[in-house]
Design brief:
The chain has about 400 residues and is an alpha/beta fold. It has 3 domains: about 1-70, Nucleic acid-binding proteins (OB fold (Dihydrolipoamide Acetyltransferase, E2P), Beta Barrel), CATH 2.40.50; about 100-120 and about 210-385, Rossmann fold (3-Layer(aba) Sandwich), CATH 3.40.50.150; about 130-190, OB fold (Dihydrolipoamide Acetyltransferase, E2P), CATH 2.40.50.1070. It contains 8 helices and 18 strands. The longest helix is centred in the N-terminal third of the chain and has 18 residues, at about 90-105. The chain is globular, with a radius of gyration of 23 Å.
Amino acid sequence: MSLKLTDKVSLTIHDLAFGGEGVGRIDDFVVFVPFVIVGETVEVEITEVKKNFARGKLLRVEKPSLERVAPECRYFTQCGGCQYQHIDYAAQLRFKHKQISDIFERVGKISREVVAPVVPCPSPYGYRNRIMIRSQWNGPAKKLEIGFIRADNNFVQDIEECKIAELAISEQIKQVRANPPPKGGIKIVLRIPPEGWDVPPDSFFQNNFFLLPKLVETVREFLQAGGSRHLIDLYCGVGFFGIELADLVESFVGVEYDQLAIKSARHNAATRNITNGEFIPAKVEDVLPDLLKKFSVHADGQHKENKTTVILDPPRKGCWPETLNLLRETRPAQVIYVSCHPATMARDLNILCADGVFELARVQPLDMFPQTQHVECVADLRAGQALQNVTI
């Protein structure tokens, strides 16, 4: 069958791809469709045709899944912020687990058996403590739109509230609308500051306070299981992980290029009387080898006992190749990798585990982003057995 733009076809959905689109087929030709569920039969209008696949717009659900639910947000399918509000929450977790396992197997060459079930969020709606809205002038309507980029184009969907944001954030949206920016093209960050933490306006902090304790618990569990005495927190931001884990190690150091974040990290440690760590403003690749040497413990006159854990919490694009190569060369006893992007994480883990340099013990996904395609993962890597006593 030769597909053309605006063709209307009926499809059965047999998978949900990472990113949230359903996967249907016409003969062997793949068609991606948003806002559908595995097992559904849907009517679709073709909106894009490529050599190996097409995309379609959902027109009608002919045979709905029993896991289809009514979205809570009136902007769902228009606003591009959420992909899964039409799916029962338990099913969302199951689909995300399969997507992560598929990506790790395909991209990382990693057994899906190491991927644990996804930890649910206790608040599937009303959880985000930070959002960014945009302003855009709508010429034909002669009005300023304030909201999120739409799901189907690059225009702004005008909104009055956000159902996945905390109620206080929706109140801030109302304030922005009551006192709008002077023109379009302006980005506005709305945030609820984390209690007891100093965070500069542009610095990162986890955007789900409800599941944050479980994220910390997971990293603590991995660190304790690794038995390290020293901790290096790379891309440490305002010092969150180093400070939360300080009681488990003899000493730690946080590394962050953003000097404002480092200033806040030092303040956050001081207010908690954390005295066994330090924070360094530097590029990771410039300081990592010396830090690993510093934290190596002499077990005898010739060798050094490897008792150091490195935490990686990089941006969505993943780690710099230089950082991964340094970790392979210096071989700390344990690497705990925290990521909100399973695909780049799988790519990086594949590099770290090549040739048995590291072994992946477990991956724990946590649903820090309900109703969306995104998910947080924590991976526990250990130095290969033959490398445990290698001199650094």
